[in-house]
Amino acid sequence: MDINVREADDGVAHVVLDGRFDIAGAQTADPIFSALASSSKALVVDLTKVSFIASLGVRTLMISAKTLIQRGADMAVCGANENVEKVLRSTGFDEIVQLYPDAASAADKLTSSLRAFESKKA
Amino acid sequence: MSDAGPQTRSRDFAGAIEGAMEAEAWLMSQSGDLGLAPDTEFAINLCLEELFLNAVQHGHAKRATISISTDSDGVRVEFVDDGGPFDPISAPAKRISGPTDDIEIGGFGTGLVQKFSRRLSYRRSGGYNRLLLEFGAARDADAGPEAQHTT
Questions:
Q1: CA-CA distance, A120 to B101, in Å (whole number)?
Q2: B6: part of which helix (H) or strand (E)?
Q3: Nearest CB to B150 within list A65, A69, A81
Q4: Among the CATH numbers 2.40.170.10, 3.90.580.10, 3.40.50.300, 3.30.750.24, which is that of A2-121?
Q5: Which end of chain B is flanked by fewer CB atoms within 10 Å, N or C?
């Protein structure tokens, strides 16, 4: 699985995943997500090009989400295909992180979370 | 398009994370020949990952054997491991309900296996867990050339 991280000017970090979020994918993703979860203020995870996910991949996302939320930061997930979304909803992942159809709507939501994060720190 | 007749593929794997990764790669390599529809391939891959991780991490299995058979009724997958007794049918289907819940490896696996397989049967015999899973139609062809998949 390829992972591309970029930080937009508004402070929202985007992580774009491409490939299979299987066991090998989760092993690649774990250290990257771990670093992002402890440093980002707002994280959009783009799953548009992810063709597969199972509970190990969900676990990677959930651990990051928990860390971000505990820090007062936030995460949004976008672009999940039908099967990937079914997995995310079956595990209850959508109870802690909101799912969006595309990166733009996810980033919009996080921009307002980011303002709240900054004002809390100020 | 491959021959529409019944087909079976079977292979042994080491009871380790590396074995589970090999099993996923093996499924991908067989999927085309078996004519698995994308949704069926996704469901089988998901169930195999969950069962394999459970067998290794909770059952301490040393070996696992996976057999995949296709015919006109659909796809059957048998997962056999030599780990401790574990019946995923009677195991609770865990679901997270908030950011403070514990996230344990394999904790969501049984719920996903129940959700993504059409039928599931378990028996313990001769020191082995034997799980038989059934999935929907093997191939796309029945749905017609206009069939579209979102994956």
A1: 25
A2: none
A3: A81
A4: 3.30.750.24
A5: N
